[in-house]
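Cast an eye over this sequence plus tokens and explain the fold to me:
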Amino acid sequence: MMKVQFLNKLLTSNIFAKRILTVLLVFSFSACDDYLDEIPDNRVNLDNLEKSAQLLTNAYPIASYAFTDWMTDDVGFTLGVTIRLNQEQAYEWEDFIADPTEQDTPIFYWFQTYEAIAHANEVLAVLEDLPVNNEEDERFKRAIESEALLARAYGHFMLVNLFAEHYDIQDESNNNRNLGVPYVTTPETVFIKQYTRNSVGEVYDLVEEDMLRGIELVDDSFFANSGKYHFNRGAALAFASRYYLFKGDYERCAEYSSLLLGESPSSFVRDLTSQEFRSASSSIERYPQLYNSPDLQSNLLLMRKISLVQRLDFAHGPTRPIYNSLFDENPYPGTTDRRENPAFVKGENALFPVRYQSLFQRSSLNSNVGFPYHIALAFRGEEVLLNRVEANIFLNRVDQALTDLQIFVDRRYSGDDTQVSIARLRAFYGVTGNANVSDRLVLYLYTLLERRKEFISQGMRWFDIKRLGLEVNHDLADGSLITLAEDDLRKVLQIPQSAIDVGGLRPNPR
């Protein structure tokens, strides 16, 4: 349980909106295709709308950021599993040394995301000149532009929140001074091109411009058969909800969250207490299929990710003490938190919640080699609801925050009494009658706990650690303890060495 005194300081000083957030270096499956170094001249000839729309299927990064969980307080030293060098480096917060084709590294994420951005830019560069024959074509063209802009904005937003300090809404001079990432808006046309890093503030401004234009143009009617794998309207609004939460603009976070949630926010929260989910929990195959189903209204954007995070024989995981203490912690005696099970046994001393299907793509039909992958939930209704809770806490709308939390809790805990109230939360945190601890702080503390449970092993905890400035401790095999301090420079992941040596980019301070 986090200290009340620390979170009281956090809530009153808005410190979570000022903490550094640069953590991931990532790579590309084509080892020579460094999109901040060179691009092979093998582009598709985009001479019609259909080809442009097809190319945008490559505008979503195949790299997962869920490896950041190995850097968080959700994992401990795990016995009986294979620990690769990159997994050890993540666990000990070292700068990564990896080939650009090694999944689950910041280097992989960097290059794969810029590769995805390059595809979006190819489409945007030719779209204006493509032939249009009727109003239907005009609508299709606007939908393509929307998807390309949203994909480009999303890629840069995730990069800046991994490789740069967190946006500081209270000090614009910091945002204009701190190194962000290059915001690339044109196709690569030269063999080696020199880039500069836009500031954090510039990246956020450009993301917002692309994102809002994308929302304005979005049209779901062209994605009838695969809508959850494209930036549909729901995913675009969820993106805006996350963007404004991370920026610290709580009014707009609440606004865009409400545009998605509408009059029935409960429909955007999967009901884990339902008979459907409880029946599926007896099957480690059926449960993740249901959990990640595109048919669920709560699942807004699905992405295929090349990764080992879903594998039980690799990397550190939530040790039993961490896992059990996290899910034992709730204000509702006699209830069951339905997120705790089903869970896999990981190694000798860890558990891993069943969320992913462990899938494998063969290099060819007759090949025994290929790539492990899973389908990840890039945006979910639950995140949007919790974003709105957090925004309303800071807007001093306590009753509205409680209403949303009740919707969430009713679909996570089964039992006779799951009533959310300030009195119950104050008792839970041991501050009943303590005038030095506000109701808003208690509510915020509980919201962070629910966020941590909800997104465990899915890569979201790291972003909360960065924006809140939380300290993380990891135990090592010899029993010693290492610490990532709240203002540790290593929370900003170092950019790839090739981007420094060849691309000419300034490295992050160390």
